[in-house]
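The passage that follows is intended for readers who have already worked through the single-chain material. We present the inputs for a multi-component assembly, then the predicted structure in tokenized form, and finally a short commentary. You are encouraged to pause after the input and sketch how you expect the pieces to fit together before reading on.
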Amino acid sequence: MRIRIDYTNMLSSAVGSRGLCEAELAARIEKAGEAIASLRAKRDMIRWRELPYNQGEIVKEIKAVAEDVRSRAESFVVLGIGGSALGPIAVQQALNHPRWNELPKDKRNGPKLYVEDNIDPERMAALFDVIDPETTVFNVITKSGSTSETMAQLLTVMRTLLDLYGEEHLKERLIATTDREKGNLIGIAKKYGLTTFCVPEGVGGRFSELCPVGLLPAAVCGIDIEAMLRGAAYMDELCDNDSVKENPALMYALLETLAMEKGANIGVMMPYADSLKYFSDWYAQLWAESLGKKTEGRRTGQTPVKALGVTDQHSQVQLYTDGPFDKTVTFLGVENYRNEFTIPHAADENPNVAFLSGHTFNELISAERRATEHAVTVSGHMNKTILLPEVNAETIGQLIMLLELATAYAGELLRINAYDQPGVEEGKNMTYALLGRPGYEKKLAEMEEKTSRMTV
Amino acid sequence: MRIRIDYTNMLSSAVGSRGLCEAELAARIEKAGEAIASLRAKRDMIRWRELPYNQGEIVKEIKAVAEDVRSRAESFVVLGIGGSALGPIAVQQALNHPRWNELPKDKRNGPKLYVEDNIDPERMAALFDVIDPETTVFNVITKSGSTSETMAQLLTVMRTLLDLYGEEHLKERLIATTDREKGNLIGIAKKYGLTTFCVPEGVGGRFSELCPVGLLPAAVCGIDIEAMLRGAAYMDELCDNDSVKENPALMYALLETLAMEKGANIGVMMPYADSLKYFSDWYAQLWAESLGKKTEGRRTGQTPVKALGVTDQHSQVQLYTDGPFDKTVTFLGVENYRNEFTIPHAADENPNVAFLSGHTFNELISAERRATEHAVTVSGHMNKTILLPEVNAETIGQLIMLLELATAYAGELLRINAYDQPGVEEGKNMTYALLGRPGYEKKLAEMEEKTSRMTV
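Having made your guess, compare it with the prediction:
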């Protein structure tokens, strides 16, 4: 069972002059060997690619810890942001009940899951309205231990737990996921003897879903993490193929980077399944932060846009069909949903409504996806579809690895470093300055220069 | 208490050559009188602008119905999509507890709220896992009554309720919001004697939040809808000002349309508050569907992108700073949050963490917003900030009207019809064809032509 990409509608033969010309694509395919070679040469650096293969022992440990948490926790709270949050949210939504936290305990195969990825004071207060610290286990995730948002949350949670239960009991209620040696969190973890998982060397935040960052929350919520890794391994192998036409990640990267050259500075991802909704968020970080770069005066980057089918047919598709030729749309389709639901007869007297009865919701959502693909295509806009036979742990593992490798290949094709994020330093440093962190006094002056504001 | 726009950073004096030149802006301001005049001339057509003034009686009715629902329902389920869903979701998230549905009944000032805006079979099944039909009131919202998704949901719900409680009791459990006379829903509503609210003439889906579409769900959840309308009226008056520099909606439209001319085909909206998160979704429909148009061969439209501060600093800001000059960022800032939360001391031995202690989450999130504005600005990207003194029913009413009028003014400046959506017809018709609706047989042939698919 494998996911496939249908890219018929990226080509000019389907969408007309705004599509990719087949000769152009063929020429690029010829040259794509370079990207395969250069990515292979990085294999020792981009250690996230090895995660499906080298975690036998870690998976055992994760499962043991998860079993312990499951046996005693009613809530599991992840404190993390960006790459430490988006993967866990996406996987939970994909593989567990859509209203997991609202289900009664006996219908839920694990504790409630909260992923706290913001420092809004209203939301922080709201969390404590719905969890009971007595039956909650926290998992703080930050590789560097210098993420202000996560550390602020950690201080809050630690103070509460230390006051309620004392230093010696912190380790029962708090798990750390961080760098093996460096940073502020590992020091805290050692001091209190916390169970600690490592974010391996060469695994950046946005590529970390298949390491303990993502695997622990998934295992705690009863997800088959070995199947996820199996799916990822399978996709990794497919995407090492020298033939571009057999290599889904490279083909994805080639199509998108070519489309970018033709002016598609926007890439919409539009899953037709509520379960895949947050994969768009996860992908948006992966694609934006990896490829949005300034190199030798050259600026690259395609802005990811999150949409949801069919919902956003009633919100965005007017723009996607009649609007400018500045985007590609990537649909995520599902062949078999995990529920079937027949539209019953209840207004047979009205033929304008009754034609729906007897069809399933499944038929309706699939028809709408195909119809939207068609409408976007005939309006001349490039689009492709990633088709999942069904949403399960294996296909989700495949999808994660497919998009990670597509991003990596796109980095090679664009000749940029896909693994840094220098552009966020300015904001971080200014935050430190505004909070009066020692050493950042001068920074503040930069901001105070501009005084005359234009407001309305 | 009014919201304001700070547009200092849209100008070249702040962001450099990629910003709007002040002379250019001044020239446009001169000519903006035309847009004011043409929008005023439409006042009789765009009836959504009158909603703050002409609903005295309707508000009384809504409040009475809401009181009845509140007295007996534990869940209130909206069946609607697009404009019938995005406003209710945004307002609920803005003005009620962030985890409303998870709160125990005695801490919730109204029933749980579910807005079902998709036809995913897994999600439909999940809804019935968490609601009890016995204590649920449904509100089906579709102006035309021809929205397949909503009608499919309605048939499902009707069948369940008719089977359980019989025809004569449907009216206690189902409320309709639709056109006064036309369409399929009004017929059903009359047949069963349902309580029915009208979507007035001249109020399209995406401009309908301040009519019963949005007001009923809000009132059911205990929101002060009169305050919302008061805020909207206040903003409507401000935005009728002949002086552009005193007219926030017109200034917003002028800045964005000018930025579009300079290549900003992307408009990011980035609230720094979880409570405003879904305003980005609501706005994305409003802006995309209104302005994404094909007129006389000319294509217009700026693609809205949803982001959330500070969360997406760790996801998108790398792209917003180092990436191409193809976007504007509109921050939504909040001066006073409804909770204050101090970061406690819990790791004073580590100065790299301890500098956070003693600050509040409020200071942290505000510092991060200002720091991100600064980083986006010094990297040369246009941005502006809508500042809400606090999030309450009045400022939310202001925000809704501000963005609706900004969209309307943008429509005038772009010389397009902001109130239709012809581009979605193709997809609708193809869906009908795929579902075998009589009269659409020919349509199907268009799709079956292409047989050879390119897949990987």
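Commentary: The CA atoms of residues 272 and 309 of chain B lie 4 Å apart. The first strand of chain B starts at residue 4 and ends at 6. How closely did your sketch match?
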